[in-house]
Amino acid sequence: YVPLGATSPTQYPVSIYGTEVFELNRPLRDLAVSLARTATLNDSSAAVAYRANYASSAAYAPGSQAPGVVACDVATSDTYFSGTLLSEAFENTTRLFTNGSGRYCTTAQEDNATLEALLRGAVSHLTDFARVIVLRTASDFDRPYAGEPATVNLFYATQGGFEPALRNIYLAGVRVVQAILAQWEGTFAKGVPPDNYVGDILGSLGGAPDFGPGSEFNDNPVIP
């Protein structure tokens, strides 16, 4: 994958749209993760059997673990991708766009579009971007285990993770919702203050992102 306007995979894109990278409220994320971890998650025998294959490789060994809740980065693509070559390409792209600070552990097709809509709302003083939480479940592997053809992983393997993932997003997510409702007056009504940069790659909400080309607005919020 060669970035827009670049001539090599390691060159930063010459042109950016502003939707390439978003950073969310870290203390709020950590609070949501701690709440989600109180849930008892589902599994399936098919998922247990398939993911055991990933234990043979040190690099992929975490993929063999039972369902759990982790805090990590998400890579979003409009085009569904699968296989080691494409996954490594987007791994490199994630590091490049985040100045080396990002390393994705799950993929998505809608997050950046949703976050851009919410950010535009924040620019117009209609939403509070510091209140955004992204909670996802992983249902399949983006690349095959050692020795497995990429076509088998993509088309034919019974990975067994889809139905447990559907159940787990509720089981983990409802713990967060219940805590927000129960602790609204004491914690969430005023919001959880961030201790990190929150916003997009352009610094549209003010502040200086530590990724991308830096703030385009000299640490001042955009005036709509």
Considering the chains and any ligands shown, give keywords for the structure.
224 residues, single chain, 7 helices, disordered C terminus, 35% helix, flat, two-stranded antiparallel sheet, two-stranded parallel sheet, mainly alpha
Summarize the structure.
By secondary structure, the protein is mainly alpha-helical.
What does this structure look like?
The chain has 224 residues and is mainly alpha-helical. The chain has seven helices and four strands; from the N terminus they run E-H-H-E-H-E-H-H-H-H-E. It has helices at 26-36, 45-51, 84-97, 111-123, 150-156, 162-182, 184-188; strands at residues 22-23, 73-76, 104-108, 199-200. Strand 2 (73-76), helix 3 (84-97) and strand 3 form a beta-alpha-beta unit. It has a two-stranded antiparallel ribbon with strand order 1-4. Helix content is 35%, strand content 6%. The model is unreliable at 220-224 (pLDDT under 50).
